[in-house]
Amino acid sequence: MQARSTTPSTPSPHGKRLSIGIVGGGIGGVALAVGLSRTRDLEINLFEAAERFSEIGAGVSFGPNAVRAISLLGLEKAYRRIADASPAPYEDVWFEWRRWHDEAYLTASLAPGCGQSSVHRADFLGAIVSQLPEGIAHFGKRCRSVEQDAEGVSVSFEDGSDFCCDILIGFDGIKSSVREHVLPSVEYGAFDPRWSGTLAYRGLVPTERLRQALGKVGADEKMATVPQMYLGPDRHILTFPVKQATLVNVVAFVTDRSTPNPQLPAGAPWVEEVSQEEMLDDFPGWGSASRAILACIDRPTRWALHELPELPRYVRDRVLITGDAAHAMLPHQGAGAGQALEDAYVLTELLSDPACDRVNAVEVLAAFEGVRHARTCRAQATSHEAGNVYEYCGTGIGTNEVHLATNLKQRFDWLWNHDPQGDVALARQRLGGEMSINA
User: Fold this and answer.
1) CATH superfamily of 18-82+120-193+308-392
2) 0.85 exceeded by the pTM?
């Protein structure tokens, strides 16, 4: 960015060009902090509610767009050291798709040059954290409230401390505290997480154990290491390797479609341990390989999958919400972490530009929202739709497996082929009024 005006950038009272606070130390928030920390005239502070960095969940799958964002953020080397990939000769396979009651092959979704790129969540967060300079992260900082005026933003934490900055980025997840400031409930109504109607049983299985279990029921043992998706009415099961293929991430989904707006029982936990028997009872009539896979999970956890409704906006002047705080989505396209990483890259590029300062940062945040809102909302909607397709409830598809296979071959193209560098270029064009943007 280069300002048309010859007026010099207004420095922050902190002595830097721009003071940036980031609330939330998950994958997206840390990736943003790492990206911004490479620009010396920015002051970066990252606030995490927990006492240390940590991730919940097990495996996370990345499509080509997410891997592209990782590379653009300068994190590719750290990522490649821990990432798994589809084994030869299935390098381009994202998932093979199979029928529920006999595991018959339906089709495969291919991501040329990428395939199924996956990691253990905690490993990936650790790899990013290793790139974070000392002194940026602050722990035990749970956001309580946010206030702002024309001069800056003040965030208060539950430990009684406060922090002032020029702009604040809420990367604080689906239960975001920053979201209430951007979209006050008294004005917009509540934008609370809503249960999707889907429960997900999760577990990590030693690869050799799974291979042997599949062999015992006469199934192809390659199904232990080549990513698989088993599709059935109101249910589906996925598997893909993590931890350098020593473990297989298994997730088994069950959806309640008996009512348009299913509700969790009052007080029901989002995550709980359940018995293997309870999990198996939810998959009656499924094929021998599917049930053998589930039988390898000795102590499953069951997750009530929540999502956010589409939000009308992500920014309010100097405060922005992004990642799951803005567009939490279901995991059915493996898109959530990828969208957070795209957000982190685009923000890094825009905020690192020397022409972005505390005076025009409001316009820069608005430009970010302008180029990201439609895409992330579409990712939310299509992630929900994908779950319907997998469970034989897709609009215009249903149980027609010919239409299902055709859909699965192409439904991810729009998501995977996106280049976030285009978002940066478009945001710069949007800022062409007071600022003449040169890529």
Assistant:
1) FAD/NAD(P)-binding domain (3.50.50.60)
2) yes
